Recover the amino acids of this structure.
């Protein structure tokens, strides 16, 4: 055997080795770029509870409702102590959250019938995320219009698994109306389970489907909105509880939040997932929720109507286990999500929210907002610093210092005329840029809400906390 190696063979072997090495380097570079791209583009999830009480979570001080998974999320994230939604009722609050702007800019000011929806020329958060490479999912309660042009699939969402109405049974409905049927992209879904579990399961499936691509998920549970319905085993768990139904419904909500988070951990994508958790408005008297030290509740402009529990968690970027005391809003979720995803806001897109990331990453001091405003038909309120003004048409205005009087009981409007005039002027300036409401709440709710707000402003005992309660008692 001739063991002599010719120079031509040596050259050929060297060229082969160089070629293989080059291909390996290119492949590794591509893999690195893919990994880097995924790492730099976080998943974004909004978990929205419905009508939850301000103190009805463990991390907010609840001693009787059990929420271990949500508490763990809060412990690892940032808890906002002065966070607000843009409305005191469901639909306009969601309109503000989804568009990042005061919903009064496009006339969406009150709850109404299903025929009313978002303005056609308004961009949603889902529109922006989808345009910039995100898979977009909406689950649960929509309540932003049932006309075809208003439904999630036409407002930026690739997939919608939920229902259009403001409320519905947690269990299967025989022959449901179009707005109350559980649907997947317009097609009726027959189901036999409990709605909170169904939505949690679907959220898990969507996370699995998109584990290798960035996704935006709007997970809008109808829990803990009425009707007060819970699974038998959860009712049994809380059989001696004074708020049995709410405790059972809250437990199920917490289980399903935990289910999703555990799946994100199993998939190895939890650290690079930005999660927001909040309620759509203050706690409602109809579901026995509690707002603790806050005056008022869902539907009126006192703190109990629009101050909400709010958690932001992004382990890869934001230090957890802290509280943030700056004035903040659900309007901030839109610009914060854009910034997290490295998405540049288009020049013509007006957003009223602030990017929270610089505040949470110690790159900026101060507060996200010095002023916030609210208006629902005949009621309005304005906040500058610690001072808050509440006005009721055909009655008058009151003012409170929230730092000294979080319960809003001491009217200081007469003794602080200069501050009162400053806030009133700021509110009128804001209002001049808004549209008149395109619809109201109807001939029954309007006078009820007006009288309730007047009673709260006068610090008098409340006779009826909801219109439904009034009608029930008047029938007896």
């Amino acid at each position: 055997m001739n063991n002599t190696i010719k120079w031509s063979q040596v050259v050929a072997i060297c060229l082969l080795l160089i070629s293989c090495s080059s291909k390996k380097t290119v492949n590794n570079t591509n893999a690195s770029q893919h990994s880097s791209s995924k790492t730099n583009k976080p998943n974004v999830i909004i978990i929205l509870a419905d009508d939850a009480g301000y103190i009805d979570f463990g991390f907010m001080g609840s001693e009787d409702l059990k929420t271990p998974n949500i508490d763990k999320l809060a412990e690892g994230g940032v808890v906002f102590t002065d966070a607000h939604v843009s409305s005191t009722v469901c639909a306009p609050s969601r309109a503000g959250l989804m568009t990042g702007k005061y919903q009064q800019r496009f006339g969406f000011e009150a709850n109404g019938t299903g025929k009313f929806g978002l303005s056609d020329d308004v961009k949603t958060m889902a529109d922006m995320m989808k345009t910039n490479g995100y898979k977009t999912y909406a689950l649960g309660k929509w309540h932003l219009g049932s006309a075809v042009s208003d439904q999630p699939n036409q407002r930026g969402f690739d997939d919608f698994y939920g229902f259009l109405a403001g409320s519905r049974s947690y269990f299967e409905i025989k022959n449901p109306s179009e707005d109350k049927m559980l649907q997947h992209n317009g097609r009726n879904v027959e189901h036999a389970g409990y709605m909170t579990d169904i939505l949690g399961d679907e959220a898990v499936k969507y996370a699995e489907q998109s584990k290798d691509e960035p996704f935006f998920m709007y997970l809008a549970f109808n829990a803990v909105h009425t009707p007060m319905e819970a699974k038998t085993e959860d009712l049994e768990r809380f059989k001696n509880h004074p708020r049995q139904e709410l405790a059972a419904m809250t437990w199920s909500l917490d289980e399903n939040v935990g289910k999703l988070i555990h799946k994100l951990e199993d998939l190895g994508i939890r650290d690079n997932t930005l999660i927001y958790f909040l309620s759509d408005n203050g706690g409602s008297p109809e579901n026995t929720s509690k707002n603790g030290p806050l005056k008022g509740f869902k539907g009126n402009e006192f703190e109990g109507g629009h101050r909400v529990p709010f958690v932001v968690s992004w382990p890869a970027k934001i230090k957890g286990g802290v509280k943030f005391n700056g004035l903040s809003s659900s309007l901030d979720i839109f610009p914060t999500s854009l910034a997290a995803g490295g998405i540049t806001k288009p020049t013509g897109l007006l957003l009223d929210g602030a990017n929270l990331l610089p505040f949470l990453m110690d790159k900026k001091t101060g507060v996200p907002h010095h002023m916030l405003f609210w208006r629902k038909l005949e009621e309005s309120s304005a906040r500058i610093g610690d001072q808050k003004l509440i006005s009721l048409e055909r009655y008058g205005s009151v003012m409170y210092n929230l730092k000294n009087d979080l319960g809003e009981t001491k009217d200081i409007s007469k003794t602080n005329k200069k501050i009162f005039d400053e806030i009133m002027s700021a509110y009128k300036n804001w209002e001049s840029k808004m549209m008149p409401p395109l619809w109201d709440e109807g001939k029954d709710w309007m006078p009820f809400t007006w009288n309730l707000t007047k009673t709260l402003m006068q610090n008098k005992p409340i006779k009826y906390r909801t219109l439904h309660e009034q009608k029930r008692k008047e029938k007896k």
